Amino acid sequence: MGQTETKSQSDNEKEYLDLLSSAEVTQLKKLLCITDNKSQNIKVYLENLKAHLLKFFTPSRTDQLISFLSTHCAITAAENDCGVALMNEIAKITKGGQSQIIEFVYQMLSPCEDDLPLSDLKLFCEEALQCIDHDAIKRFGITAESNERLFRKLTLNSSEHLDVVKLQKLFEESPVLVELLLHACQNVFFGKTSFVNQELKGSVPVLLPELEIPAKFNIAPESSILGAADVLFLNGNLPLPQQHKWRFLFSTSFQGESFSKLCAEILNKGPVVIIVREAAGNIFGGYVSSSLVYSSQFQGTAASFLFTVKPELETFNTTTYNDHYAYLNIGQETMPNGLGMGGQHDYFGFWLSSDFGKGHSKAKPKCTTYASPQLSSEDTFNIDALEVWGVGDEPVLDDEEEEEIGTSVIDKHPDAVAILRVAGKERVSEGLRDNEASASSMPDMVQLHATHDPMNYPGP
After folding, report:
1. What would the pLDDT profile of 393-403 be if each residue is shown by its tens digit?
2. Alpha-carbon distance 209 to 205, whole Å?
3. 375: closest CA among 340, 404, 401?
4. How far is CA 89 from CA 30, 51, 84, 207, in A?
5. What distance in Å separates the CA atoms of residue 431 and residue 399, rounded to the nearest whole number?
6. Of 15, 17, 37, which Cα lies nearest the Cα of 28?
7. Which of 121, 144, 277, 316 can bridge 370 by disulfide, Cβ–Cβ 3.0-4.6 Å?
8. What is the distance between the terminal CA atoms of the chain, rounded to a whole angstrom?
9. How far apart are the C-alpha atoms of 379 and 369, rounded to whole Å?
10. In this predicted model, what pLDDT tens digit does every residue of 3-21 receive, in sequence order?
């Protein structure tokens, strides 16, 4: 029987190796110091690998990894092929998918097949996040606080001790954990790899987005409101076409506390993620699923959502009660001036006043549009910091749209302005006409003075 097992193992030895690219095979041979004309004992290969793993993991975690690989690559009859067997085992971990990751994690962390403590799994996942070489990790930074929020959210309904069945159930319910561990292992063994498959872009999940930051913004690492774990969570909740890229648009750290500058940067830029940190410490915001424009009516689609980051990670999707997804207007006397999402007049689920620095979240017991609770610590709040990221590719505007964006309502309707002057009315947009042309993209005059109530809403 032993001979049969050895032969079977030899037949399947290269099963996973075929999934590696030639560059990945070359990289593994380099790490293990495998040469084509010289065979080494498997212990020698493992010692070479151990020196590499210590660059990523603690000595105790490295010993666990080496022990796992040694156990699964125990070659008795085919000593000359032990290097190939070791490469195949690494390929099995990195390319074998969910079932192989489950086997790897369970047997490495619990070699005696005892129940796996959830705390051990969380710690290994935190270590895995630090192994990923990605610009989003460097820019947003890894903090114990954001890590704890993420893994608390992903393992919310899990037992404190996991057998293999419970571990499988956890991974099925939180596929982001599988992606995290796969990317971490691939980075450790093969070096930095792209998260975005260009051929499948927009149709498959992306763990962390590529970042697009204009050169004029010298953004220091770890200067964002969010941590890398927060970005990982939020990105996973975006529609697939927006997951591959985040484009920096606005931050109070760079553009200052100006509502007109905020609007100048976010108008007609495609879907956006808005993040607010209030003075009391809560972090929250919203995803607007379509380009924002000035309008006296609500905009967006049912794909929009509100979210909290701190104290807990949570998203709040749209209900069917109304379609008050997002609202942006400015310069009106009878309509709300600012940026809001959900709810109704003076009772938005999330509101930023055009009087920059102030906002409210008046959703008691819940916001009608998103079924979200009050996001801020108090129903009104002061802004400590604000960020906006465009997500997905920036939309390409045609010539008419570009002309519309760059044209002020004052320039488009001089006759209307003259009538207002005769009537003794102030030009409400005059104060917005600074050097940023796009900031002056005001609503049409008919829209500015329309009697339409955007909070038209069937009930209290």
Report:
1. 999 876 555 55
2. 10
3. 340
4. 16, 18, 9, 24
5. 27
6. 17
7. 316
8. 76
9. 17
10. 444 444 444 556 898 999 9
